């Protein structure tokens, strides 16, 4: 089974998890569709395999990538590992731009909606977002989203993490050409790393364990379960 099939199972699990969450998000609302979307190469491969990213859209991505854009300082699992070893986490120093995502249509729709990356699925709000304002998420949804990012990075531990504008370019190549492309980007993309721990607020630990039990039982097409893809010794840091 390919890792993009595992990603599909994760997206399906997340869709089920979100059912029952009252969200203000609706078709045509694109307030959060900016150039600040961070993804793994795994999510980029899923987009490429979907066939939804046409040559024109790919070209638009490349043109936008040539402009200044947000670059995450590190990966989520690296940040978590630094917390675990009590290192100080690096601060985000890259400028955050709010240019519209190049994959957005003139009607405010996502051109690759079925294959959109996890950041786009996780960006939701229980109340309508004011222009330039923030989304509102229940605290446990923030916790679950962070864990999902970590799990995706773990499954793609051989890959990279960065702005979608850069990561899709890398994922469009094969083998050594991927490594060369990542090196050419001079730090714009970060190497993924395996999951070591989840950082969970003390009052959410019980609920989080239940969430992970359900996620681990999610069946994959090859008869295995999502839990088989995760390390058995992950820790919770409160
Ligand atoms: S990929 Fe789609 S959902 Fe994500 S920011 Fe771009 S247009 Fe919006």
Give the secondary structure arrangement, pairings included:
Layout: H1 3-18, E1 38-40, H2 41-50, H3 55-65, H4 76-84, H5 118-122, H6 139-155, E2 160-163, H7 164-171, H8 175-184, E3 190-191, E4 197-199, H9 205-217, E5 235-237
Parallel strand pairs: 4-5
Antiparallel strand pairs: 1-2, 2-3
Bound molecules: iron/sulfur cluster.
Describe this structure in words.
The chain has one domain (3-237). The protein has nine helices and five strands. The strands form two sheets. The protein has a three-stranded antiparallel beta sheet with strand order 1-2-3. Helix 9 (205-217) links the parallel strand 4 and strand 5 (235-237). By secondary structure, it is mostly helical. The structure holds iron/sulfur cluster. The site of iron/sulfur cluster has 9 residues, from loops.
Keywords:
mainly alpha, globular, two-stranded parallel ribbon, binds iron/sulfur cluster, 3-stranded antiparallel β-sheet, 238 residues, 9 helices
Secondary structure tally, helices: 9
Mean pLDDT, to the nearest integer, reads 92
The count of strands amounts to 5
> Order of strands across the widest beta sheet?
1-2-3
Produce a short descriptive summary:
The chain has 238 residues and is mostly helical.
């Amino acid at each position: 089974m390919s890792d993009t099939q595992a990603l599909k199972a994760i997206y399906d699990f997340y869709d089920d998890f979100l059912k029952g969450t009252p969200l203000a998000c609706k078709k045509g609302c694109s307030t959060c569709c900016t150039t600040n979307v961070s993804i793994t190469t795994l999510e980029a491969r899923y987009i490429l395999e979907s066939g939804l990213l046409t040559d024109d859209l790919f070209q638009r991505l490349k043109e936008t990538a040539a402009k200044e854009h947000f670059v995450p300082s590190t990966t989520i699992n690296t940040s978590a590992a630094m917390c675990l070893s009590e290192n100080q986490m690096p601060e985000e120093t890259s400028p955050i731009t709010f240019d519209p995502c190049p994959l957005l249509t003139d009607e405010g729709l996502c051109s690759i909606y079925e294959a959109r990356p996890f950041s786009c699925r996780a960006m939701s709000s229980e109340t309508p977002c004011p222009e330039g304002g923030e989304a509102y998420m229940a605290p446990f949804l923030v916790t679950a989203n962070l864990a999902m990012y970590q799990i995706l990075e773990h499954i793609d531990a051989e890959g990279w993490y960065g702005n979608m504008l850069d990561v899709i370019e890398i994922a469009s190549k094969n083998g050594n050409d991927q490594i060369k492309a990542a090196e050419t980007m001079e730090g714009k993309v970060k190497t993924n790393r395996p999951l070591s721990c989840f950082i969970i607020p003390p009052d959410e630990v019980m609920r989080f364990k239940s969430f992970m039990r359900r996620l681990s039982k999610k069946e994959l097409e090859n008869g295995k379960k999502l839990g088989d893809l995760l390390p058995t010794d992950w820790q919770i840091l409160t």
